[in-house]
Design brief:
The chain is α+β, with helices and mostly antiparallel strands. It has two domains: 51 residues; 102 residues, Immunoglobulin-like, CATH 2.60.40.1940. Helix content is 29%, strand content 42%. The protein contains one helix and eight strands. A five-stranded antiparallel β-sheet has the order 1-8-7-4-5, with no helix packed on it. A hairpin with a 3-residue loop joins strand 2 and strand 3. The chain is elongated, with a radius of gyration of 33 Å.
């Protein structure tokens, strides 16, 4: 009987020790779980309101396929300005330029390595200080062969 009572006491002590360890583990997990949940909620709120928008941190860029080089560009609320340089090694005639939803027709001849400024007016590009991202489409004709071709590109900038 005495041995049985001692054995019960040992089991009771071991059970209490396990209970304390598991309670400490649960408290640890709950504390850090709530902290992680709060951090995730804060990050989600920042992303929702656009604070973490990567477009605000990206540099301005104007890329066009090989042959035509985008030297510079400026996008305003009502117009777009872009400067191209002819790198084809032959004379081309720029017939049409589209930037986003804005387009204009031209009849500008560019010899090899010559650059020219193209102004597209009557646009609705958006609100000043917002990010503008659009496709650039240039329709041109090779002077020597009289073939019509199209060059594609993209532009990322802030509306000024």
């Amino acid at each position: 009987m005495v041995v049985s009572a001692q054995l019960k006491n040992k089991k009771s002590v071991i059970s209490r020790a396990r209970s304390r360890k598991s309670q400490a583990a649960m408290e640890f997990l709950m504390t850090y779980g709530w902290a992680i949940l709060v951090v995730l909620a804060a990050i989600a709120a920042l992303a929702y309101f656009g604070v973490l928008s990567p477009e605000k941190f990206l540099p301005e860029k104007c890329l066009i396929e090989t042959g035509l080089t985008c030297i510079s560009s400026k996008v305003e609320a009502a117009q777009s300005i872009i400067v191209f340089q002819n790198g084809y090694g032959k004379t081309v005639v720029i017939d049409r330029v589209d930037i986003g939803k804005c387009s204009n027709t031209f009849n500008t001849t560019l010899t090899s390595e010559e650059q020219s400024t193209f102004i597209l007016t009557g646009c609705s590009n958006g609100v000043t200080k917002e990010v503008f991202k659009g496709d650039v489409i240039i329709k041109y004709t090779e002077k020597s062969t009289n073939l019509s071709k199209t060059a594609y590109g993209t532009i990322n900038t802030k509306i000024e």
